Known about the structure:
Blueprint: E1 2-7, E2 34-35, E3 38-39, H1 42-62, E4 67-74, E5 88-90, H2 91-102, E6 107-112, E7 115-120, E8 124-129, H3 134-142, E9 146-149
Antiparallel strand pairs: 1-8, 1-9, 2-3, 4-5, 4-6, 6-7, 7-8
Helix pairs in contact: 1-2, 1-3
Amino acid sequence: MYEYRVTKYNPEFRDAGGHYLREDWIMFRQVGESISGVVLTVEEYERVERAYVNSAIAFLREAGLLSMTVADLENHQGSQLAFRNGSTLPLDEVADVIRQMLREKLWCRLEGEDAFVHIGWDFYMYIGVPHRCIFAEQKAVKLGLFVEEFVSPHHRELDDFHA
């Protein structure tokens, strides 16, 4: 499996331990706040959110996936959902689930045959696919994101928080 970390965070601004050194917004609830002297607008948030969603779907499509399965669903807000643990969703519905995770409305693992999408804290997205997806990598970069080879910390066997 080929694994990626796809984020809005430029890797040039990480320390030797991988910690991001710049102050940046990390969640939807910060819309309207000033971060490093710049107010996070709804438009900017939605632009970045679209980049994440479109990038994730591009990786899944290039990998030949048509659907993903919901695993380990956490719905702390008790929202009415059209799916549950074990639901298999077509990619257009996967896109909506990713949006909801980015907005911290729910959390789950999206899993497919030799593939996954994990959304972590602070706007980190991890994607696993059966092979390298060069066109999706290029699309993510074109959308303003940074693509790095990186093992997801949200695999069941590695994930302390959601285990």
